[in-house]
Amino acid sequence: MDLRKTSVAFAAFAGLLAGGVAHAQTELTVYTSFEAVDLERYRETFEKANPDIKINWVRDSTGVMTAKLLAEKNNPQADVVWGVAATSLLLLKAQDMLHPYAPEGVENLDPRFVDSDNPPSWVAMDAYVAALCYNTVEGEKLGLTPPTSWKDLTKPEYQGHIIMPNPSSSGTGFLDVSAWIQMFGEDEAWAYMDALHENIARYTHSGSKPCKLAASGETVIGVSFEFPGAQAKSKGAPIDIIFPEEGSGWEAEAAAIIAGTPNLEAAQQLLDWAITREANEMYNVGYAVVAYPGVAKPVEHLPEDIASHMIENDFEWAANNRVRILEEWTKRYDSKSEPKD
Amino acid sequence: MSADATVLPAGRPVKLGLDRDGLIKRLFMVLIALYLIVTLALPLYAMMSKSFSTYEFELQRYAFQVSDGEGNWGEPVTAAELNARLGLLDEADLASTSDGRLAATELFPDFNFRSPVRYRIRGTVEDAPYLVGLEYHNSREWQEFDSNTFRRINLRPVRSIGVQNYVEYFSTPSLVSSIRNSFFIASVSTVLTVGLAFGFAYAMNRSCMPFKGAFRLIALMPILVPSLLPGIALIYLFGNQGLLKSLMMGHSIYGPIGIIVGSVFFTFPHALIIISTALNISDQRQYEAAEALRTSKWRTFWTVTIPGARYGLVSAVFVTFTLVITDFGLPKVIGGQYNVLAVDIYKQVIGQQNFEMGAVVSVILLVPAVFAFMIDRMVQKKQVALLTARSVPYSPKPKRGFDMACLAWCSLIGLFIVGIIAICQFAALVRFWPYDLSLSLNNYAFNRMDGGGWSAYTNSIQLGLLTAFAGTVVIFIGAYMVEKVQGFAAGRSFFQFLAMLPMAVPGMVLGLAYIFFFNNPANPLHVIYGTMAILVISTITHFYTVGHLTAVTALKQIDGEFEPVATSLRQPFYRLFSRVTVPVCLPAILDISIYLFVNAMTTVSAVVFLYSTETNLASVAVLNMDDAGDIAPAAAMGMMIFYTNAAARLVHAFASRSLLARTQVWRTR
Question: How confident is the model over B185-199, as a mean pLDDT?
Fold first, then answer.
């Protein structure tokens, strides 16, 4: 009798303890591709506002992160993804790997930054926008004029002076190609890329590398996005960041809940916070375009009107045509050094 | 022996009863064999089966129903029937990848999204996935859509088994061209490396040139750095802002030229060690005979020197060829648009998340590696002892002209090696190449960059130490059991085969195979996925063979009589093992551990698929920082690896010397 009483009391105590601990702090495993420099700051800001949740970051580049998430499809390790390209999250969505959730206040966001389905499967924090990094010193040495549009890049004077990311291994490369097709139409876009290909020195695997190569004079023009451009400029690189006049493709860094997470409540709390005004101010330190209208202040070395360069990006179309586009692209350009037949 | 047999009548074959010692030994051997099966054979099998896992649109899984403008529904029809009736899609159209989509409207040639016609779709079986927009559906209930929504419906492929991935591979020219590229790079690099290394080894062994010790140290330096480092150095030397760009005469370093030059750098010491050993073993008497017969130097070279070293040369050729064709870091950094097999695996898996195609390329890369390995083994079996008890070791005599020529040859190669390392260190210290050449330590602020920061560096050291310790224990015990166990011939030769197998498996292939095998929730070993343990295990397995051969060679020096004597003295084998075997083999054990440490610090290929955020590694950080365009920090991290390995070598040399002084006194008389 005594024994039973004790064990009941013990069980109750243990339950209290467990419940208390769980209430005190839930640990969330968060997969991310945010810039390495930002991670600690983001964690601190979040945990200050949400003392009951502890973030365990798992960070890698977008491609690796996506591969990891897909590989773990049947045994997900992450509770939340926060700061991974929306296009990658669409891949997960098409595999039924996301838990749809409309965070509190989602109606305040620019609708371009929210999944079109209701409830949305993902919400975005910020955007990175395609841009050209142009090395003024090397450009002058070679007597080049800076390009102002995408179409300019096919001019013969730039032959061998352009580096762009390979769309089949870089998200940035894919957003360029998908934007050209959306802007110019399928036929004209491929004709454009045929001409552009003649001027390309080589394709890289990552999206920031072309800009950094332009910054160090390895090439004159790097097809990249605005973030590494601003970073390189602040280090003293002699580059101009050019937004082509036709408009730029862009990609959103988004957040989503992984279906089947045991910590659903905490995950929802994270998403709620991730789209607040406060969080958007936090993203604005590095990113010029954020999801919450009216928050963005200009970022050093970047123009104020970046958002106006962003095209209407049809994420659904891009995701559903990705395989077909990449197959075509690879067939046309992926063996640059081979003789054309 | 045969003479004895005729004198003595053949007795009953002696069969040792299996005592406790023998049992324990066999148990150990079986355990380590199991280890190799679990960490090598099973993952490879998982990868093979993945390469046959395909995705297809299976039309019989879906049924449609179409209404006319007034809302009268027609008969339900499966997509397969529709296709058969209209002949719209052939088999090739239905082949797909894991991310494939097939627009439902493809089956309705007269589809118009403005028409008032309505559509219904359902699965005819349990698993019939399709997307509406991007929303995932998978049900056997009818779902109804207007035509404007219906155009947003995409069927999704389901998994099946077949050779389709291989068909796809061989019909994609950009993928197939990689096979040719890989062979071209590997062949040219092999010819160059073996040629250069032969000259170097010849100078070291057959001349009286000065500074031999210094040259030996320099020649072995490339072993201490990851294979990506020469690629980074070549960018600073011959890239568009390179110091020696004019030497390229308008050619680009990004591509085959860069890969070949870099490959020569990182394979040079491997070839040199093998050839040097071969040239070292030669008999002075043969040269004396040649001289007595007034044979020309040229003829002596081709009839005495080359035949004497031919097994070493063959081995060097195959080792170099395999190293180059399976290397991933260098072509990733400097290859530009020149596709090779090892990088294709990475691009398929990381870039496109196409694991199945990654597995196909892996299988294709496995073929030349296994072939090179088998041919090398066959040739080595034919080798006979060149040195007999009566041999006189060759000792070179000073010849001024020849010695100076040798010195010049070695100096050139030494300059090349030192130059590559030095330029990396310089680039790592420059503030902003090429516009601000003042020096700073900014590039060492790893925590502000991709790749995992300074913790990647400490992780690497941890991996190195764990691999060196656990690996040496496993490898040495395995070698001891296979060498000193009596009987059990079939088991022993199977073990030998398992121990040799890792040599033939490229790192990329091993890493990818580990994903398929360990990242499977059904696998009880799944828990080690994403931990340091899987990195240690993959590294031990990747470099198992060389350690095993070293251990076996050392064990063969110990007379086989020790075991029977110990048994007859009723001493358990572990006492013999710890009192005699280990002390005698200590130099070999130290060699195995330093070999494992250095390789764990520099390897990229297997671990690039297996590291996690908590277990980021320095060598992978070099790769990722270069990938992000942070080339100078990548050089800085590469140099950290170099210094660490150099320090480890020093410690090893010191430890060997002092331990040898204590334990190897018996060797000197």
Answer: 97
Asked if A155 contacts A281 with a C-beta cutoff of 8 angstroms, the reply is no
* Type of residue numbered B499: A
The pLDDT tens digits for A64-85 are 788 888 878 887 889 999 999 9
Q: Report pLDDT for A2.
A: 47
Residues of chain A with pLDDT under 50: 1-23, 337-341
Residues of B with Cβ-Cβ distance to A331 under 8 angstroms: 172-174
Q: How many CB pairs under 8 A join A and B?
A: 160
Which of B:595-634 have CB within 8 Å of A? 612-614, 624, 627-631
Chain centre distance of CA B225: 15
Segment B144-152 mean pLDDT:
90
Structure token pair of residue B668 = 């000197």
> What residues of A are in contact with residue B98 (Cβ under 8 Å)?
70
In a domain, B368, yes or no: yes
pLDDT given at position B384: 67
| Pair B403, B412: CB distance under 8 Å | no
Higher-pLDDT residue of B574 and B63 is B63
Segment 197-256 of chain A within 8 Å of chain B by CB: 201-206, 208-213, 216-219, 228, 235-238
| Domains assigned to chain A | 2-127+251-307 (3.40.190.10), 130-248+317-333 (3.40.190.10)
Residue written as token pair 């409207």: B105
Give ipTM to 2 decimals.
0.84
Side-chain half-sphere CA neighbours of B497 within 13 A: 8
**Phi/psi of residue A287, nearest 5 degrees:** -105, 130
Asked, for residue B316, whether it belongs to a domain, the answer is yes
* Average pLDDT of chain B, as a whole number: 89
* Phi, psi of A133, deg, nearest 5: -105, 120
Binned at pLDDT 50, 70 and 90, residue B477 comes out as very high
Put simply, whether A37 touches B (Cβ < 8 Å) is yes
> Is residue B2 in some structural domain?
no
For residues B195 and B126, state if they share a domain: no
A-chain CB neighbours of B613 within 8 Å are: 57-60
| Contact at CB, B628 and A206, closer than 8 angstroms | yes
Please report the pLDDT score of residue B366 as a whole number. 92
Taking CB atoms and an 8 Å limit, are A72 and B515 in contact across chains? no
